Automatic annotation (TrEMBL), chain A:
Similarity comment text for this entry: Belongs to the ATG101 family.
Lineage: Eukaryota, Viridiplantae, Streptophyta, Embryophyta, Tracheophyta
GO cellular component, one term: phagophore assembly site
GO process terms (BP): autophagosome assembly
Pfam families: ATG101
Keywords associated with the record: Autophagy
Name this polypeptide is given: Autophagy-related protein 101
Statement: the UniProt record of this protein carries the keyword Nucleotide-binding: no
UniProt keyword Acyltransferase, yes or no: no
Top-level division of the source organism's lineage: Eukaryota
GO molecular function: protein kinase binding
TrEMBL record, chain B:
Pfam families found in the cross-reference section: ATG13 (PF10033)
Native species: Leersia perrieri
Domain of life: Eukaryota
Gene Ontology annotations of biological process type: mitophagy; piecemeal microautophagy of the nucleus; protein localization to phagophore assembly site
GO cellular component, one term: Atg1/ULK1 kinase complex
Key words, A-Z: Autophagy
Name the UniProt record assigns to this protein: Autophagy-related protein 13 N-terminal domain-containing protein
Domain Autophagy-related protein 13 N-terminal: from-to ranges: 18-102, 108-229
């Protein structure tokens, strides 16, 4: 089975936007790949004028939020860097079952790479704290236009997900009564400069 | 429902998937585009009328449970003849005429959804021709099942994409606004379902953007879904506008210098507020063109009931009421409007101090105005210190500088102390009565003090005269300040016999008379410096600095007020006024002091001579 990969457009964002952006993107992917019975839940982004859809599964929401928090913690330690969050879907298959071993192998059938460039918020903080009216107004205007541009980019990413999810369907396993096995990989401290997870890279090369 | 004769028929299971796909698509689209349809909470799904439907309830088809069941679905199976007919759903924006209750009016198609099943014969698709030929040759049930699974799975994913896309298009925000607000609006969303595609006009076609989902290949054809939409909805959001703030309200709250103030402010919306409103209208005028910039509706009105709860609609109101001095400073550039907007959303942010207005420039040419405001404007800070403040008393030394007044304000000689104490006691009694009357008023009550109409709000006391309430209305922030000011005015009255009548004046005197009395009172009042003598923190040796210190103390006492801007403006204005008044007081005081000095000297000399005589 081939592993289909989708590299999403890189998004430049600030630290306080990470949660909103990642929630939107991750839940959109899950909504397209959770083919079990779902009762969709509309969610409005906090910072952008975008309404996305969640599967309405509390466990999944909790898992996504935990991973996002871990990613934010990593970003705080590694500011102003490009990074990736990878959502992988896999199947567990028994590899060479024998009397003594019952090794299972993960076979990834789809991977989504969310490319982010988290900018440092220090410059904006100074401008916002400035008491001068003109400087504060300029900074605010820049922030608003930047956020608007990011909102458009997020929509482009969502359409990218929609296009990919509908064009590549043949590799999806049969619908079962539970959601597909998945994992959300975030950069770890030992990763390289670009925050690539070494394990993810190995899997991509092997697929 | 099955394919027409002449075309190869899909397996029954696939046929059923196609049928349910049409129904589900209609359900998803109408749920997010038909405001009144989707408000119906029909928890029980309508039973499928098609004999081919399985045991699965219709709303759970494709594992997508949708709660609402639009009325259009109830008869969907009845009027739909064949899967080969396209399903065309037009979303129409209706502009209702306010005079008529009917939906007659302009109607514009803002979205067109086309769902259709095209057989292989018609679509002429060659991309997957080889695959389909292979499929055609297989007729085993196993293959049918795999075909069914592939079609069903593909439809499941596609319908999820549809569920998302309907929320990303501009019409969704309009739908949400119409659905959330129960008000009758001039705009409405309607839909039209048909089985033929009515071509757009050239203008409409040029305006529309198109998006097509990836089709679902079946054995003998394919399912396709596409949408044509207007990327920019020029929706007038005036229907959602907040209650406009009449300028009269603003004038009532702002004193005379704000006459020019208001003129400047009125010019602001065209330059300062509108761009912010345009930014707020982003949700209604929205382009999702890939890489396209945000299309902004030219609608200038602020929106209300934003799904995100933003407080943007309050900009004109909040800015006009609270940020008077800041508006004064704002230039009609784009930069300052955001600062105003920011301050609206963050009302706790401190205001920048406004430049003090030149009294000669901005004040009306009313000689009485200055005198009216003075006694209330120059406060003392000490809370509860009204009783300890000594009335202005004649000083033993007659010096022209304020620096000398410190000596005069020093603990007085015995000859003045008794007079002072009497005046204090008198002042206290009378002051308490009058102050009680004023301060015991309920919120927004009117009271009278010395013939002046006083209006009280929880935080402010407004003194209004008959002649020009706009000029006279100003705020006293601190209760103690009010007490002190009124007490000083009260005590000053008793200094002169002529003023006693005024001091004891009834509240029924006309404001003009009261103003005249107050003017006389101020003219003949002894120096303010003596009134501040008992105030421990208010002893200031220097003449200019003492006034400034009083003003500074006033600033310090009301620094935490939410109307710092207006009070600072008043302070700067009245401080200037106060300085001028003090100069006059000084002259008057010096004359009185000289008079008393000579009198006291004569008295002393007379006593000495009496005592010293052998």
């Amino acid at each position: 089975m081939n592993c289909e990969t989708c590299q999403l457009k890189e998004l430049e964002l600030e630290q306080d936007e990470i949660k909103d952006v990642l929630r939107c993107i991750l839940h959109t992917i899950f909504f397209h790949r959770t083919l079990t019975l779902v009762r969709p839940k509309d969610v409005d982004c906090d910072l952008f004028e975008i309404t996305y859809v969640q599967c309405g599964l509390p466990d999944l929401e909790k898992e996504v939020d935990e991973k996002i928090n871990q990613f934010i913690a990593w970003v705080e330690k590694h500011p102003n860097r490009r990074s990736q969050v990878c959502l992988s879907f896999f199947e567990d298959k028994n590899k060479n079952p024998s009397w003594f071993t019952n090794k299972t192998e993960r076979i990834y059938w789809e991977q989504w790479f969310i490319n982010l460039h988290v900018a440092s918020p220090k410059g904006h903080g100074k401008s916002r704290s400035s008491k001068a009216t003109s400087i504060g107004g300029k900074a605010l205007e820049e922030a608003r236009s930047k956020r608007a541009a990011l909102g458009l980019l997020i929509q482009e990413v969502l359409f990218q997900i929609i296009n990919f999810a509908n064009e590549k369907k043949d590799h999806i396993p049969a619908i079962s009564d539970r959601i597909f096995n998945h994992e959300i990989s975030i950069p770890s401290s030992s990763d390289s400069v670009f925050g690539w997870n070494v394990d993810v890279l190995r899997r991509v090369l092997n697929s | 429902m099955s394919a027409t004769s002449g075309a190869a028929a899909e397996p029954p299971m696939v046929e059923q998937v196609i049928t349910e796909f049409f129904a589900k698509s209609l359900h998803i689209i109408l749920e997010s585009r038909s405001p009144y349809e989707s408000s119906r909470n029909l928890t029980r799904p309508s039973p499928p009328s098609s004999p081919l439907s399985g045991s699965q309830p219709r709303d759970r088809w494709f594992n997508l449970a949708l709660r609402d069941c639009p009325a259009a679905l109830e008869n969907f199976d009845l009027w739909r003849q064949s899967n080969l007919e396209p399903l065309v759903i037009d979303i129409v924006l209706l502009c209702q005429d306010s005079t008529s209750s009917s939906t007659a009016g302009c109607g514009k198609i803002i979205e067109r959804w086309i769902i259709q099943y095209e057989t292989r014969n018609f679509c002429g698709d060659n991309g997957n021709g080889s695959k389909n030929n292979v499929r055609k040759s297989r007729s085993s049930s196993g293959e049918d099942h795999s075909l069914y699974r592939a079609t069903y799975q593909g439809s499941t994913v596609l319908l999820r994409s549809l569920h998302l896309v309907v929320r990303l298009l501009p019409a969704y925000s309009l739908f949400r606004d119409l659905n959330s607000s129960g008000r009758i609006r001039p705009l409405n969303l309607s839909h039209k379902i048909s089985s033929f595609v009515e071509p757009f006009t050239r203008q409409e076609d040029a305006e529309m953007k198109h998006y097509a989902f990836a089709p679902i290949e079946t054995l003998f054809g394919r399912l396709s879904l596409s949408v044509s939409y207007v990327p920019v909805l020029e929706v007038v959001a005036a229907s959602e506008s907040t209650t406009p703030v009449p300028p009269e309200i603003i004038k009532d709250y702002v004193g005379s210098p704000t006459t020019d103030f208001l003129k400047q402010f009125n010019s602001l919306p065209s330059a300062g507020i509108a761009p912010a409103c345009i930014a707020m209208n982003r949700r209604h005028s929205w382009s999702i063109e890939h890489g396209a910039g945000t299309s902004v509706s030219p609608s200038p009105s602020p929106t209300d009931s934003e799904p995100h709860g933003s407080p943007q609609t309050c900009i004109p109101l909040r800015v006009s009421l609270k940020r008077g001095s800041h508006i004064q400073n704002a230039s009609p550039s784009g930069q300052n409007k955001y600062t105003q907007f920011e301050e609206c959303c963050h009302p706790s942010s401190p205001l920048s101090p406004s430049p003090s207005h030149s009294p000669s420039g901005s004040y009306p040419k009313n000689p009485l105005f200055r005198y009216r405001s003075t006694p209330v404007v120059i406060p003392t800070v000490k809370s509860g210190g009204a009783s300890s403040r000594l009335p202005p008393s004649p000083c033993s030394k007659g010096k022209h500088q304020f620096s000398s007044h410190s000596d005069n304000l020093a603990p007085s000689p015995d000859d003045n102390s008794n007079v002072r104490k009497d005046l204090v006691s008198l002042g206290e009694v009378e002051k308490d009565k009058a102050l009680q009357k004023v301060l015991s008023c309920n919120k927004y009550d009117l009271g009278y003090f010395h013939g002046l109409k006083l209006a009280r709000t929880p935080s402010k006391l407004f003194i209004m005269g008959e002649l020009d309430e706009h000029e006279l209305a100003f705020a006293c922030e601190d209760k103690d300040t009010i007490i002190d000011q009124l007490s000083r005015a009260d005590i000053s009255d008793r200094e002169e016999q002529k003023m006693n009548e005024d001091a004891g004046g009834s509240s029924t005197r006309s404001p003009a008379a009261a103003i005249g009395a107050l003017v006389r009172l101020l003219k003949t009042a002894p120096g303010l410096r003596e009134g501040l003598q008992s105030d421990a923190g208010a002893v200031v040796p220097q003449e200019p600095s003492s006034v400034q210190k009083v003003v500074n103390e006033e600033h310090g006492s009301i620094a935490s007020s939410s109307t710092v801007a207006s009070s600072s403006l008043l302070k700067s204005r009245t401080a200037t006024d106060a300085l001028e008044e003090l100069k006059k007081y000084r002259e008057i005081k010096e004359s009185i002091q000289n008079r008393r000095k000579t009198q006291s000297r004569d008295t002393k000399l007379g006593e000495k001579q009496t005592d010293g005589e052998p």
